[in-house]
Structures are given as C-alpha cells and as structure tokens.
TrEMBL record, chains A, B:
SUPFAM superfamilies given in the database record: NosL/MerB-like, Winged helix' DNA-binding domain
InterPro entries given in the database record: DeoR_HTH (IPR001034), N2O_reductase_NosL (IPR008719), Tscrpt_reg_HTH_DeoR_CS (IPR018356), WH-like_DNA-bd_sf (IPR036388), WH_DNA-bd_sf (IPR036390)
A GO MF term: DNA-binding transcription factor activity
Organism annotation: Oceanobacillus jordanicus
Ranges for domain HTH deoR-type: 3-58
Protein name stated in the entry: DeoR family transcriptional regulator
SMART domains given in the database record: HTH_DEOR
Keyword line: DNA-binding, Transcription, Transcription regulation
Length: 195, 195
DNA sequence: TATAGATTGTGTTATTTTGTTATAAGGCGA
DNA sequence: TCGCCTTATAACAAAATAACACAATCTATA
C-alpha cells in the first residue's frame, strides 16, 4: 500500500472509530509504530486528531473550532461568528470565510465542491442557507470587514427595508455572486477595508 | 482501553449514575483503585464531582457554578452578548441585563448607584455608553427578547435610517427611560416576548 | 547504473502510566 | 473515646509508550 493511501485510511479509520491504539494501527497496516507516529504527525498539526498516551482520538469539530481559530479561507483575516460564511465541502471538510464578501468569492471559485453554504442573518443572527439568503451591497453601514461589503439577510422584505433606510441594493444569491465578481474585477481588487 | 477514553467514560458514568464507588469503577474498568483516584483528580479540580469516603458524587451546581452564565438582573432570563446592557455600580459590582429593555428599567430603578452603563450598537456591535446611545422602539424587527423591545444605536443618524426602513421611533437615553416606564405602566407589564 | 530524496525499521533514551507497598486518615460500633 | 476496619495518599518500581538518531530500503530520474 502506498504511504499516501495508508495515511488516508488511517484518517478515516480514526474518524470512524473515534479512539484507536497506535499498536492496533501498526498491526492493521503492517508497518512499525514509528511509521504510524510519522503518519499521524500531519493530522496532529492539522488539529483534527489528538494524541493520547498509547493512541489517538478524533477531535470533534466543536473542539477544533475552539482551540484553533483559523483565518478566513479567502483573505486569511480573522473572523467573527457574526459575519462568518461557512462552506461545507463534499469531502466533509469545512471552510470559513470572514464575511459574505469572501464567502461568495470562494463559493464561486470552488463551486462544484460545495455541498452546503451557511451564513447568519445580519439583524437576528439566525443561521441561514446562503443560496436562500438575500445579499445587500453598497449600503452606508460599514462593518469594517471586506470591501465591497456584502450583508446577508434571511428575508427579502427585511433586506429591502434595510436598504430603504441605509441605502444599497438587494441581490439574490446567484446575482450577488455575479455582481461581486464584476465589482472585484472593476478595479477594486483589494479586499480589506478599502474604499 | 485508552486512558483518555476511560477518563471520559468515568465522567459520563458518574454524571449518569449520580454517585458511584471507587471500587466499582476499579472493577468496571479493570484497573487499580489508585488509577481511578488519579483519573478523578482532574474532575475534582474542575469541580464537577465531589469525593466521599469510598466513592464519588456528581456535583450538579458545582459545574454550573464554573461555567455559569448568570441571568438578566431584571428578568432573570439568559442573555447574549449582543443585546446585553451592563451596569457598573458604585461598589464596583457589575450587573448585566439581557437587553436595553431590562437595562433601562434597572437603570431607572437604581439610578444613583450606577457609575457606568454600557451596551452594544445594534448594527456594528461596538460597545457604547448607554447615556450617549440612541434607542429605537416600536420597530418591526423583533429579536425575541423583551417587550416592548428597545434597540440601541451609536449614532442618531443610523437609528433614524433604521427607523426609515423598519419603522419605530428614536429616543435619547433620558427620553427612552421615561417612555419605557410609561409603556410598562400602560398595561403591558410583562416582560418577555409579549405582544 | 549511479545518485539524490523519500520512506521505513531498529535501537536507545526519555516520558507517561500503572500497580504495589507503606503510611496516614476517615468512618463506625462498642 | 478507643480500637478496628476501610479508604486515601505518597513514594517507588515496573511496564508501556513516545521521541529521536541513524541505517537500510525503496523510487525516480539523469
């Protein structure tokens, strides 16, 4: 078996069994324990498993998120839960973008791999499905994340009411993606807090 | 079984059974009592269990005390950081209200003792001084906290823009307190999610 | 074929875990 | 309160495991 294949299988085995001994992995794959330790090293650094004495344990996503606050998958910036845009991919991995701006761009980039996309209603913070959300751009409220700014709303009616007060335009998911890409190509290539 | 896995199981076992003998745990997991004692040590320090002579007992309140999110000082309900209204008193104690509704009422109640009052801008979540904030009531957006609902804004301009879209009225701090008390006395005495 | 790089196994040392023994302390009946 | 039994704690030794260094093996490429 190729090393890479072994590593993949080890990963899925841990994910499935939750806890497993190094010795058992060594037996199962017919390699020395030292090799198993070496195979586990990248997984450990990635943060999806934890070593215990004598074995490994799968780290739940919740824990992972707690211990490791990674940056936005698109711009690398830190993010808050409030504006975050999450992409659940076909390989069961999750990517987090700092805001809908980066989320929509990333979504456009890797569209085929995305199984689910979720974001948060700007007013109520309810979790919503991105493709069903409404997106507001060019508004006068600035959250200081990325530019051009994109705010997300659960209901079209509320997005429109928001625009009535604070200006801007309301877009559906597909249109928002197109418009955003156009805006980004229209000379404003920088992401963060640019006017 | 891996040590970590055993520790987890011991924890959930105690939580489930409420109290259990050390000897039984020793039997159940096939390790010496000394090992069980060692496994219990971190749980003990964490405060979620209590040792009795010969056994352990689950401490309900102990754990709650550690992780405890206290309720609103006025209505007792749990609160989110987003809507919370905090009162710093002259004796250096801090009180937290679940939202501006309860915060303003509490503020009116113990006015003299309050040194500082802080809340959060509804749009940006910036922390702001309550007496300098602008308060929106009777709007069509409902956050599901207390009724009559009060939203807080850093800038009057933004509060007005919000009202333009979502309806309602903008009040300064002093006026908001008065209006709220009037509304509460006008027959709508209940606090939570009442229409 | 020769060579560089990657992968793997082995032996050694350091660390962690566990059980045993000895000692201290708590519970309980007389 | 005293004495007896049970349980808790501490110290030590043994076993299991991790980490490291180095050598051997394998793979790809010129």
């Amino acid at each position: 078996m190729l090393p890479l294949e072994r590593k993949k299988r080890i990963r899925s085995l841990i994910e499935k069994e939750r806890h497993i001994k190094i010795a058992e992995l060594s037996n199962r794959f017919g390699v020395s324990e030292m090799t198993i330790h070496r195979d586990l090293k990248p997984l450990l650094e990635e943060g999806c498993i934890a070593k215990t004495f004598g074995g490994v344990a799968w780290k739940q996503d919740g824990q992972e998120a707690n211990t490791k606050v990674q940056g936005c998958v698109y711009c690398g910036r830190g993010y808050s839960e409030r504006l975050a845009y999450r992409l659940i991919l076909s390989n069961n991995r999750m990517e987090t973008a700092c805001c809908a701006h980066c989320g929509l761009l990333r979504h456009s980039q890797i569209g085929g791999e995305v199984m689910q996309a979720i974001c948060s209603d700007f007013l109520t913070h309810t979790t919503i499905s991105a493709p069903l959300s409404w997106f507001v751009m060019d508004t006068s409220v600035h959250m200081g994340c990325c530019h051009p700014q994109v705010l997300t709303f659960e209901w079209k009616e509320y997005a429109e009411k928001f625009v009535k007060g604070f200006g801007g335009h309301v877009y559906s998911f597909e249109v928002a993606k197109t418009v955003l890409v156009q805006k980004m190509n229209g000379g404003q290539n920088n992401c963060h807090s640019q006017k």
